[in-house]
C-alpha cells in the first residue's frame, strides 16, 4: 500500500540530512549527503541528490505530498538555492516543487512547534534569529566565515590557528594548540609556513573540522583555548540577545548546531541564558525533522504530527550531555 509522505531536508556547510515522514509524524527513512551550502560547499546539488536518493530507497512505496528544504546560504542567494534544489528534485523524477528556505527556520522548527521564538545556531557557521510564522523576522550575523559567523566552528578554528601562530612567533602565550593543530593538519609542529599552506589549501567549511581540537584543549585546561571557547560563547549570547524579544525567554529559545548540542560552548551558552535571563533553552533535534514538520504544516497535517517528530528533543531544558 502506498504511504503518503512529506520530505524534510536540512543542509549545512558540511552535511545534508533528509527525512521521509508520514502524514501523522512517523519517520519512515533518513538519508545523508555532503555539504549543501551554496557558497562554501563543493557540490550542493550532488549532496541533495545523495541524501534524497538514500532516504527514498529505504522508504518503500511512497507518494510525496510536499517538501521543505532548509539550505545554508539560501538567505543570501535564494534564487541560486532554489535552482540547485529544483535541479536535484527533478533529476529524481519527484513531483511538485519543494519550498526552499534557509536553515534558520528549520532549526527553530526542530526545537519548537510554536509560531514564534528565537533560535541560535552554531555549527560550521553561526547565526541568531527571531522567527515568526515560518519566516525570519530579525537576524544577527550569519555572514559567513570572512565577515562574521562569530562563535562558530570555523571562527573557533581560525582563532586557534591564529593563537598557535602567535605562540610560535613569541608574541602569544604558550599553548598546546601548537601541537594539537599541527597533528590535525598532519604537519610538523612549529612550522609556520606549513600551517599557512595547510590552512589556505582547505575550503572554509573544512577548517571548521579543527574546532574540536580547540574545544578539547580547553577541556584539558589549556588557558589559551579556554579563552577562545569562552569568547565564542560570549559572542553567541550577545547575538541571541540582539534579536530576542524583551524579555529574553518570553517566547521559546531554541539552540541548534553541533557546538550547541554538547560540550563546553553549549554548557557556557546554557549557563549564560540561565544566569542572565532565567531561560531554560530547548535543544533542537535533527533539522531535517524540523523541515519535515514545516512540510507537514504546509500540507494541512494536524499540529500533533509536528509535535510527534520533536517529542524526544523539544522539552524545555533538554540539554544532552
From TrEMBL:
One of its GO terms (molecular function) is kinase activity. Residues 7-293 form the ATPase BadF/BadG/BcrA/BcrD type domain. This is N-acetylglucosamine kinase-like BadF-type ATPase. InterPro entries: ATPase_BadF, ATPase_NBD, Euk-type_GlcNAc_Kinase. PANTHER family: N-ACETYL-D-GLUCOSAMINE KINASE. Keywords: Kinase, Transferase. It comes from Nocardiopsis mwathae.
